[in-house]
Amino acid sequence: MDAQTSFLDKLFDRGILHSSGVDGLYARSGAFEDVIRRFEDYVLKIGEGETSEAMVFPPGMTMADFETSGYMKNFPQLAGTVHAFCGDNHGHMDLLECMATGKDWTEGQKRTDLALTPAACYPLYPILARRGPLPEGGVTVALQSYCFRHEPSKDPARMQMFRQREYVRVGNADEAIEFRETWKRRGKEIMDALHLPAHVDVANDPFFGRAGKMLGASQREQELKFEMLVAITSSENPTACMSFNYHMDNFGKAWGIARADGEPAHTACVGFGLERITLALFRHHGLEIENWPEAVRATLWG
């Protein structure tokens, strides 16, 4: 039994997570959710003085905005779309017959106007674009969303449905880069406060295909993406629990987000993997929260 499975089994045995029968899709205990709430409160207090506004998004976004994001072009292997029955009575009879005979009843499903949200910040950009030019100095938005990535795994830190807490900076290039560098420093301070062994390293997104390899190499070369890595299921392959990203003006151009001077906005974000950070806490401090170090408990519970 590998380390990933054994840690997952321990979480199941203690009732911290509950299996659904599908890898990467779990019910979470009240204790698990309490840790997430406490961590979110802690992170929100750190950035509250710099935040223009806060938003929480549903786990779905419009298909039009999903297509604008370029996600399907770059990460088709991870994407999920929403389909539904759109037939008449005759189609319903066919569906029931397929279900009764064990045939594929999903063939009659048609795509809706929704896709599953792949990254928490994506639904924000069209909202900002519709408002017109940004105010002088740009905006900083705190947001949270459930996200979906189609990558079933027995690694509990690689869930198919998970939550991201983010701060997004939208402004000019200097503002975006300064924001990212500030949060890289803060991210290490947060991990130190939680007594989690972590380090930051340059990274790239999992772009698809041959062209994707070149995109990933370019992303690393330009140092557009960094990740905060923590050993959860493997010391050899630590897990990214935070990411610090500078998107240049890619999203500003894609959605038509203009700065006060009319130029395309630059964006940056810091993302916190809420389930992953919680799993890291259970992995390094034990499965009994009352036995965690007092300093960690004081940081999260006050």
UniProtKB/TrEMBL annotation:
It comes from the Bacteria. Gene3D superfamilies: Bira Bifunctional Protein, Domain 2. GO terms for molecular function: ligase activity. Coiled coil: none annotated. Its EC number is 6.2.1.n2. Transmembrane segments: none annotated. Keywords: Ligase. The keyword Ligase applies. This is Amino acid--[acyl-carrier-protein] ligase. It is an enzyme of class 6 (ligase).
